[in-house]
Write a structure and sequence with these properties.
Length: 374
């Protein structure tokens, strides 16, 4: 089965922390959509008749996309592929785009899961992040979506400049009170070439240090676990049956196709595993959408092994220790490495598998690196 991703690279403005590929010229929405149809039809011809279990509209701000465009694209895909009876169709959305009858239109178009970029319910934090919606807009969007859609997720960001532990606790309380089935928690990352990076470099703002970040993350683990959420991936929490099927498919290395500028794909073709990425420039994408891919790599056996280790440790399903030993260059030293990590409270063993502890989730990529290199 396939999962599909569509990158809709449009935003009204760029947030201070964002380094994703996007443009703010909304006059290009229509020509982009025409190019997207061309790319989709050309690429899906190879996968005619395949089953699709998850579709994710990401960005950018997909909630800026006209609902008629979303409907037409879904119809095109449905003409080529079969949707599973429980197909998950997710749209990322900003609260300010969900007023009026917009949610009902999205629901009627086939969207059955909303991922709402709330980021915070605190007005000071929203201003620090450069978000344009208000606390009340965030709360109202989440409440209305929870009543209408099959599944709803909210994104939260912690470690915002000058954030206090009390502010974060308030965000978590507001989130738990909403009783939504999925929550994503991200620590603010200061990425190069962003406005936030320039502000931090000049000393205009200060972001919390690693110790504070760890405390805020652990506060989220405790609050959400105490409210019935399962911590199924480093940044993601859900109640039973409400994990993100698209994201989980990516972490489990299941095939997915990405459409639009900068979108990535993972294709399994016979015995080959292929990673592919589209051009990260809208003008070039629109000029030749049938040949949008500019990166193509067939994974070696060692690259497959490394991906399996890094991605499996991110999800709470356990890394098979026999598999780890078989493909590892550390040889007999792997047992000593696992014992070091266990003694540090970062991992534990159960049923022949290696799991991260709550503390270990903070260092998932570091731990994976320790397990595959000397």
């Amino acid at each position: 089965m396939l999962s599909l991703y569509v990158h809709i690279p449009f935003c009204r403005t760029r947030c201070v922390y964002c380094d994703f590929y996007l443009v703010t010229r909304q006059d290009l929405l229509e020509p982009f959509f025409q190019a997207l149809l061309v790319e989709t039809e050309a690429r899906l011809s190879r996968f005619k008749g395949r089953s699709v279990k998850a579709i994710h509209f990401g960005g950018g701000t997909p909630s800026l996309f006209p609902v008629s465009y979303l409907s037409r694209w879904l119809e095109l895909v449905h003409a080529c592929c079969t949707f599973t009876p429980d197909v998950e169709i997710t749209l990322e959305a900003n609260p300010e785009d969900l007023g009026g009858g917009r949610m009902f239109e999205l629901h009627a178009a086939g969207i059955n899961r909303l991922s709402i970029g709330v980021q915070s319910f605190n007005q000071r934090k929203l201003a620090a992040l450069g978000r344009s919606h208000t606390r009340e807009q965030g709360l109202q969007a989440a409440r209305t979506a929870g009543d209408l859609f099959q599944s709803v997720s909210v994104d939260l960001i912690c470690a915002v400049p000058d954030e206090t532990r009390d502010e974060w606790a308030s965000d978590l309380r507001d989130t738990v009170t909403l009783q939504l089935p999925h929550v994503s928690v991200y620590m603010l990352s200061v990425e190069p070439k962003t406005r936030l990076h320039r502000s931090v470099s000049r000393g205009d703002v200060t972001v919390p240090g690693e110790d504070v970040q760890a405390t805020l993350y652990e506060d989220a683990l405790g609050t959400l676990a105490g409210s019935g959420y399962q911590h199924y991936e480093v940044s993601n929490f859900s109640v039973d049956g409400h994990h993100s099927r698209y994201n989980l498919a990516c972490w489990m290395r299941e095939p997915y196709l990405g459409f639009g500028p900068s979108a990535h794909s993972f294709i399994v073709d016979g015995g080959a595993e292929i990673r592919q990425a589209n051009v990260s420039l809208l003008s070039r994408y629109m000029a030749d959408p049938q040949n949008a891919a500019t990166f193509y790599e067939v994974l070696s056996e060692n690259e497959r092994f490394l991906e399996q280790v890094f991605l499996t440790l991110r999800i709470n399903r356990g890394l098979d220790i026999g598999f780890l030993r078989k493909g590892n260059k550390l040889g007999h030293c792997i047992a000593d490495k696992i014992e070091e990590l266990r003694a540090s409270g970062l991992v534990f063993e159960e049923g022949g598998k290696l799991f991260l502890t709550s503390k270990g989730f903070l260092f998932a990529d570091h731990i994976a690196g320790e397990l595959v290199s000397d």
